[in-house]
Amino acid sequence: MTRGAHRAENTPVEPDLVRTSEGMSCMSRTPPDYLTATQEALEAVRSTSPLVQCITNSVVVGFTANALLAVGAAPAMVDIPVEAGMFAGVASGVLINLGTCREEQRAAALEAAPAATAAGTPWVLDPVAIGALPVRTPLAHTLRDLGPSIVRGNASEILALAELGSGGRGVDSTSSVDEALTAAQLLARVSGGAVAISGATDVVTDGVSVVRLSNGHPVLTKVTGGGCALGAIMAAFAAVTPDSLTAAVAATSVYTVAADLAAERSALPGTFAVALLDALSEVSVDDIAARAVLA
Amino acid sequence: MTRGAHRAENTPVEPDLVRTSEGMSCMSRTPPDYLTATQEALEAVRSTSPLVQCITNSVVVGFTANALLAVGAAPAMVDIPVEAGMFAGVASGVLINLGTCREEQRAAALEAAPAATAAGTPWVLDPVAIGALPVRTPLAHTLRDLGPSIVRGNASEILALAELGSGGRGVDSTSSVDEALTAAQLLARVSGGAVAISGATDVVTDGVSVVRLSNGHPVLTKVTGGGCALGAIMAAFAAVTPDSLTAAVAATSVYTVAADLAAERSALPGTFAVALLDALSEVSVDDIAARAVLA
Amino acid sequence: MTRGAHRAENTPVEPDLVRTSEGMSCMSRTPPDYLTATQEALEAVRSTSPLVQCITNSVVVGFTANALLAVGAAPAMVDIPVEAGMFAGVASGVLINLGTCREEQRAAALEAAPAATAAGTPWVLDPVAIGALPVRTPLAHTLRDLGPSIVRGNASEILALAELGSGGRGVDSTSSVDEALTAAQLLARVSGGAVAISGATDVVTDGVSVVRLSNGHPVLTKVTGGGCALGAIMAAFAAVTPDSLTAAVAATSVYTVAADLAAERSALPGTFAVALLDALSEVSVDDIAARAVLA
């Protein structure tokens, strides 16, 4: 794993890299040119308006729906038992975020994840604040084993999801992105999907390739839902992108380039949050070309 | 019904139309001049600040409270069992929105609806995303039979509430407003109240009269709660307006004229949502006179 | 009590007042110079970023988290049973707000309050809309008896918490701040903490001293969460301020001075709410010195 990851890390946008991974069935595929793939995914989200089911926390649920609408997707916060599993079979993508996972949401999550997998619907797991908290942590581990297409979290959450760390300080990470990279690669190998670690530089991996994205602005950490909404947008991009790694990279790039644009308008948190929604609706494929910093 | 509806449809603002409906006790009343009635209702909301109880979804609950405050009403999100029924007896109006109807909210709704009816409190039903979803759909049918003063939904939801359609795509309608008009008229006849169908042109009917309102802006569909907040505002207007049809028309007119004003400030979703709250607090009777498009 | 309160009321910022209270163990302490203490507390919040656990209502939870982030604190909305009590032991401060207290939140509150007390963590009780409502009212009385560091409410809520009134009109007070002052002093004596009554002039008391704060703007009452967010900010300030009275005064002063700054930008509710978050992140110790009106 180390060797493969290292190799990919140095050539993340190399278009003809043949990746081989012991943890996956032996396969050969050509990683996309991430910039072009991001532009195509953005256009596909806007033209097809994927229906994204969100089982997410009460703090960010409104902002998340607005972010999905702004970028061109269609939110549907179907998060009650019986309906959640059924809906996951018809949704284009699913987000499961454990931020305030009350009992009905926990049941809904345990319905939706396998239903999504059974229907071939991509789903994203955001294990908010796991580590020491005794309800969400085992739930996150259970969901992890159901094979999320994408896992998104900060370094402490990724370490805790891999059972290699005890979590952060509430929703804040106490570990660095680099400390969590090996855990992220391990998780991705096991799930067969992608894992994204948020930080000043965001890192996305499928266990082999490692892509680093350096857009965004510190004020994003001063807006609640700044990270959670990205999880929903990843589900939207996964709905139009066959490859989970590419979907996570594309969503991160679009979201953080939009954050750059918004921060130019204002780096104060209230105005920035409003400008971010505007920017998500305006960000163009040319903006992505001009601003995206991937390595 | 068809004849009566047709007649009314062609003369929606005719002031001396005598309506007769087989489904209601035979009665004669003079439909108001909607423009004047809307202006009076807006002033009455601002001067009396009706207390509007909302049992609504977690996505839009904050925006809904802010919209009520902006227009001059007083929100009270009392949505837990035991309290909900009691409060419905003292509130000025009640909204029941099924968007994320967890178990306690379902019990609260089933308390509040009959309590409101018993107290003579007008109440609004917003059957969000009903059709195929197996929890909210039968609940909406039960509530429908309790006689809501106003039903508000998109075309797919109105068809599903009348058991004439299988619902839309999540919260999005897959049917046109005109396709749902007969269903709306049927529902209104049975409930004795009004039914409002949201769309590019909004249509409100009491089963006989049909009023079409053509204000608003497409960006309203890019803001979560754009429709749900209108349901709450309908409850506020119903609290100060004896006639449900007039209340629904007045609330729709005020809300969509405010949306017009806001869209002139910005048609980007983040800025627009903020401007909409500003506009709801500023919209004047003169704005209504100058801009309202009713037919 | 009356005499002591009266004396303190006339000399609230007298730096060397020796207070004696029959209801507390006899003690002597020097009340701080509130202006300096407020400035120091603001700097301490920003430099230490206290972790504030919120068990709060669904209407304001997002705005509350954003307000905490803006002022420099770290929100953590851990509000489910089992986790809530555990987290209260590690949080820097806790807010319990009863606005939409569903069953799990009620259990969470009853875990968190004693856990916070046991850990020496300051906690704030906001008894939203208590009085006649039969679920939240007895819960608020139970929590009151667990010794909140700070109670925050409008006059009707404070009277109802002291069992001296029957509550207001939903979330609106029907009593004046002065009518509630004796009740506030009684509550503070019993709890050993501070009680803040919100109004055009905010009043904070520890049962002896009475501080009146006259910043803020009427538009604050047109934004949902305008008061609820202050409860969370009080918990943040209590985390960095040993004295509950000083913490409540400092939080109120910072928050209402920020509201003054925001209202200069716009007194329309949508724009104001955004500007308030900006102002909370920008408000400086010099702004406090120049604008705070305490007596």
What does this structure look like?
The structure is a homotrimer of 295-residue chains. The longest helix of chain A is centred in the C-terminal third of the chain and has 22 residues, at 244-265. In chain A, β1, α3 and β2 form a beta-alpha-beta unit. Chain A is of the alpha/beta class and 295 residues long. Chain A has an eight-stranded mixed β-sheet, sandwiched between helices. Chain A starts with a helix and ends with a helix. The first copy, chain A, is 49% helix and 12% strand. Chain A is built from twelve helices and eight strands. Chain A has helices spanning 2-10, 34-48, 61-71, 83-88, 103-119, 136-144, 155-161, 177-191, 228-239, 244-265, 269-282, 285-291, and strands spanning 51-55, 74-76, 93-97, 123-126, 150-154, 194-198, 202-205, 210-213. Chain A is globular. The A-B interface holds A 51, 53, 58, 61-62, 65-66, 69-70, 74-83, 86-87, 91, 102, 104, 273-278, 281-282 and B 57-63, 99-103, 129, 132-136, 169-172, 221-225, 266, 268-271, 273-274.
